[in-house]
Specification:
5-stranded antiparallel beta sheet, 4-stranded antiparallel beta sheet
């Protein structure tokens, strides 16, 4: 006689089989393994929500047929807590010696078009980085239905830091159109710079100091654009020697002389009170030959 057909007995169908196996992560997607049976071959499919956890989505579904019943072993990923809309996955900061500070954020979210992620907004991290603004946004889909990865680039000022200084000290060479007399002078180091006091006025070539200081920094204060022209001494200014001359020929007075602001270059974050500024100071002689 032929063998009777195989009979596989199940309890109530479309109910969970065994316990849930969770992995909850602070900086990644949560995951859970869930098993269920059904007579419906398509009862569990990728992208479907997990029963009781509506924002956990099936990403990997194994379906095994046993007689007329399908047994599904599925992995779900997402956020376990239904009220959670986004999660920080990764953060890196860069505070260069010169220029804007920057922060890179990798964020998983169910609401990628939320205004908190828009260009020009402050960091979405509550209470942190009050002068860091979103400048670039990149979006990438994920394997999880309804979730997007955001790559946010922020620029601004993380905290106070010293300015960067560049100093250039060089000589300007002049050949006056008429004879000049030059007495011995003393520079700022106390050194004697010899002239020709006994020879009187003579054809001359003069090397006059030109001292330029450039300070670069990030600030939340508008740069002093109205301070040009203007006398301004840079902080911790290097020594500057101002010489005096005597001539029967032509010479020119310079205004302003001494330490002065020569130029201000700045880059402002669009619409924000954050600037990267370079202020250049010059030490200008009061009188120079023509």
């Amino acid at each position: 006689m032929p063998l009777p057909p195989q009979v596989i007995s199940f309890g109530a169908l479309e109910e969970q089989i065994g316990g849930l196996r969770w992995r909850v992560r602070p900086n990644d997607f949560d995951s859970c393994f869930y098993s269920v049976d059904s007579t419906n071959e398509a009862f569990v499919s990728p992208g479907a929500s997990m029963p009781g956890y509506p924002i956990m989505k099936a990403v990997d579904v194994a379906a095994n047929q046993l007689g007329d019943v399908w047994v599904f072993d599925a992995e779900y990923k997402g956020f376990k807590t239904a009220s959670e809309t986004w999660r920080l996955f990764q953060q890196s900061e860069n505070t260069p010696s010169e220029g804007f500070d920057s922060i890179s954020l990798s964020i998983a979210t169910r609401t990628p078009d939320d205004p908190i992620f828009a260009r020009g907004e402050l960091s979405p991290l509550a209470g942190a980085h009050s002068q860091m603004y979103i400048m670039d946004v990149a979006k990438e889909p994920t394997e999880i239905a309804g979730y997007t990865l955001l790559a946010l680039q922020l620029r601004g000022q993380i905290g106070s830091k010293p300015y960067t200084r560049r100093v250039n000290a060089a000589a300007q060479t002049f050949s006056p159109s008429v004879n000049w007399a030059m007495a011995n002078q003393t520079n700022a180091l106390g050194e004697t710079v010899y002239g020709w006091p006994s020879e009187g006025s003579q054809p001359a070539e003069l090397s006059i100091p030109k001292l330029v200081v450039s300070d670069s920094f990030v600030t939340i204060t508008e740069p002093p654009f109205g301070g040009i022209p203007g006398n301004a001494i840079p902080a911790d200014a290097p020594d500057f020697t101002e010489f005096t001359f005597w001539t029967t020929g032509g010479y020119r007075y310079h205004w302003p002389h001494g330490w002065r602001r020569a130029s201000i270059n700045s880059e402002q974050l669009p619409g924000k009170q954050v600037w990267f500024v370079t202020i250049t100071y010059e030490a200008q002689q009061k009188i120079l030959p023509e």
